[in-house]
Amino acid sequence: MIESSLHPALILIVGSLILPLVRGHLRSALLVLIPLVGFVNILGLEAGDNVSLMVSGIDIHVLHVDKLSLLFGYLFHVAALMGAIFALHVKDSTQLMTAMMYAGSAVGAVFAGDLITLFIFWELLAVTSVFQIWANKTERAISAGIRYLLIHVSSGLLLITGAAIRYHEMGQAGLTFEHMQLEGLGSWCLLLAIGIKCAFPFLHTWLVDAYPEATPTGTVFLSSFTTKTAVYCLARGFAGTEELIWVGGAMAMFPIFFAVIENDLRRVLGYSMINQIGFMVCGIGLGEGMGVNGAVAHAFNDVFFKGVLFMSLGAVLFRTGRINGSDLGGLYRSMPWTAGFCITGACSISAFPLFSGFVSKSMVMAEAANQNYVAIWLMLLFASAGVFHHAGIKIPFFAFFSHDSGIRCKEAPRNMLIAMGLGSAICLFNGMYPWVLYSLLPYPVNYEPYTATHVVLQLQLLFFSALAFASLKLTGLYPPELRSLNIDADIAIRKWLPGFGRAFSAVGGPFRDATIGVGKQFVSNLIASLKVYHGPGGLFSRPWLTSSSILVVLAFLTLFLISNYRAH
Amino acid sequence: MQQDAAGGGDKRHFFDDPRRVRGIIRLLFICCAVLILLDLVIHRHLSFAEGVLPFEGWFGFYGVYGFVACVLLVLAAKEMRKVLMRSEDYYDRE
For B60, which residue in chain A has the nearest alpha carbon? Predict the structure, then answer.
C-alpha cells in the first residue's frame, strides 16, 4: 500500500545528496544501501497506487503505479546497485552523487503519471547524466558533454511543448501520460522528444558521441537509464504505432555496419545499443501483447548484458588506459575473470540459448512473424546475426584475444568483478529460468522460448555467423582495426553547422559592419541637428523672458475663447 | 592506468599454443556440421503461417542466412570505410 512507501525517486535523490557529506567506508556502505533501501521501498508499491497533487488548478500525478512502471522500477534499482558496486573505488563525490541522482530521476520518470512530472524528471535525467561524461575532465569529454546536454535539453523542450499543446486542446486529460494516438502536433512533439532519447535514426548521434567519452563507471550508469526510460515511455504512450515497426527495423540494421568498422570498443557497444533498442522499438510498434512484452523484457535484459559488456570494457580502460581495438588484444592473460564476464555478456546479447537475450529478443521476432511482417523479420534476423558478429565476437576477440598487445596489467579491482558477476548472474538466471521475468511483464505471457526448433535454428544462425567471422579472418578479408574515426549523422552539427556559421560570418560580417556604419551615421546626424536647436545657444535652449511666455499663453487663451464662442 | 610489466610475462597461456587455436576452429566446423545435420532430424515449426515465407523451411536456411548476412555485412562495412573513414583528429581541425 502507498501509505507504507515513500515516493521511489525520493529515496535515491535524497540519498544522493547525503553522499558528498560522508567519506571512506561509510560512503561505500551508503552507496550500496541507497538502491537496496529504494528496492525494499518499491516492493511496498502495488499496481493501482496513485498520488496526485493540485498545483495551480492542474492535477499533477506524481506517482502512478502499474505493472509496466513497477518492472522498470525494479530494473532501475538493481541497475543502480550494480553501477554503485562497480563505482565503489571512485573518489570523485560529484560523480557518485550525480550518478545516484540520475538513477533517481529515471525512477521518477517511470512512475510519472502525467506529462508535467515526466518533464521534470526528464530534464533532471539530462542534467544529472551529463556529469558522468564531464567527470572524465578531458577536453573531448567536456565538448561531447555539452553536445549531449544541448540535445537532451531540446528533447525536454519538445516534451513540454507537446504537453502544452495537448493541454490546450484537451485540458487536464491531455496531460495524463497514457496510451495516445499519433495525431496532432502535440503527440508528434512527444514522440520526437522520446525518439531523441531513444536514439531514433539521425537522432542517435548523441549516444555514440558521448557514451565513449564518459568515465569507465559513468558509461555503465549511462547505458542503464536514459534509453531505457525512453523505451518505457514509448511502450506506455505509443504501443501499436505502426511507424515504430519500421523505425525499429532501421535502428536494428544500420548501426551494425558502423560497429564493424569502429575502432573505439565502447563506441562499438554504443552502436550495438542502438541495434538492441531497435528490437525494442519494433516490438512496441507491433503492439500490446507479445510485442510490448518482448520489448520490455528485452529492455530489462539489455540493461544487464550491456551493463556487463560496458563494465568489462570499463575495467579494461581502468587498468590499461586504452580502449581502441587497435591498441588492445591478448588481455585474457592478465584479466581472465573480466574476459569471462565479457563473454557472458556477449553470449547474452547474441541470444545464445541459456543466456538472457534468447528469451526476450525472440518474442519480438515471433510477433513480427505472427503479424506477417516478412521484410521486418528478415531485417531482424540479419541484425541478430550481425549483433553476434560485432558485439558477440568482435568485442571479446579484439580486447581479450586476437594478437597479444603485450599489455600486462592486474585483474580488475574486486568491486568491479563483483558488479560484473552480479550482472552476469542475472543474464544467466533470466536465460535459464525466464519465468520470473515473464511474470513481471505487463501482459500475460503465452510463449515458450525453449523449443527444439528455436534452439537449433538460433544455434545454426549464430554458429554460421561465427564461421563467417573465422573464414573472413583466416582469409585476411576481415577489415583490420585502424586508428580512425568514422563520420556519422553528427557531421551535420559537428562540421557542417560550424562551417555554415563561419561562412555566414564571413559574408555576414561585412554586411553587419556596413549596416552598423549607416546606423551610426544616421544617429550622429540626428545628434548634430538636435544640437543646432537644443544645444547651447540654440533656439529652444535660450532663456526666455517671463513676459514673453505670458504673451504666448495669452495668445493661446484668446484663440481658445474665440473658437468656443464661434461654435456656440 | 596501472600496468604491471612483470606480471606473468614469461608464463605460457592457453592460446599461446597454435594447436589450441586450430582445435577451436576445428570445433567450430564440427558444430556447424552437426547443427546443419540436426536440421534433418528435428521436426521444424515455421515462424510464419503456411505459405507466407516458404524458404524459411528450406534445409539449412538459418545457417546460410547467418553466413551470408555476416559476409555481406563485413564486405559492405569495408566499402563504407572508403566514404566514412577520417583521421582521428577530424573534428578537432577547423
Answer: A460
**Which of A255, A158, A151, A164 is CA-nearest to residue A201?**
A255
Tell me, rounded to whole angstroms, the distance of Cα A231 from its chain centroid: 10
Distance CA A538, CA A527 (A): 13
CA atoms within 13 A on the CB side of A33: 10
Residues of A (257-276) whose Cβ lies below 8 Å from B: 257-258, 260-261
| Contact by Cβ (8 Å): A364, A235 | no
pLDDT at B57 > cutoff 70 = yes
CB atoms within 10 A of CB A24: 7
CB A172 within 8 A of CB A59: yes
Phi, psi for A412 (deg, rounded to 5): -60, 150
**C-alpha cell of B77?**
562495412
A391 closest CA partner among A345, A355, A425: A345
Q: Which of B15, B74, B75, B88 best tests the A interface by mutation, with the highest count of A CBs <10 A?
A: B74
Mean pLDDT of the A466-493 span: 86
- Work out whether the CA dihedral A198, A203, A206, A212 comes out positive or negative: positive
Residue A219 near residue A194 (C-beta atoms within 8 A): no
Return the closest-CA partner of residue A421 out of A99, A85, A58, A117. Answer: A85
Q: What is the mean pLDDT of residues A238-258?
A: 94
Q: For residues A22 and A20, what is the distance between their CA atoms, to the nearest angstrom?
A: 6
> Of B60, B61, B64, nearest to B36 (Cα)?
B60
Please report the sign of the dihedral spanned by the C-alpha atoms of residue A103, residue A105, residue A108, residue A110: negative
Cβ separation A461–B65 shorter than 8 A: yes
Contact A51, A12 (CB under 8 A): no
Beta bridge partners of A474: none
Q: How confident is the model at residue A427 (pLDDT cuts 50, 70, 90)?
A: very high
Q: DSSP code of A492?
A: I
Alpha-carbon distances, residue B43 vs A272, A454, A541, B40, B60 (angstroms): 33, 11, 109, 8, 13
Of B14, B48, B77, the CB nearest to A372: B48
- Look at residue A434 in the predicted model and tell me its pLDDT: 95
ipTM of the complex model: 0.86
- Residue A478: how many CA atoms within 13 Å on its side-chain side? 21
pLDDT tens-digit map of B14-51: 787 888 888 989 999 999 999 988 888 887 778 888 77
Check CB contact under 8 Å for B70 and A374.
no
Mean pLDDT of A275-303: 95
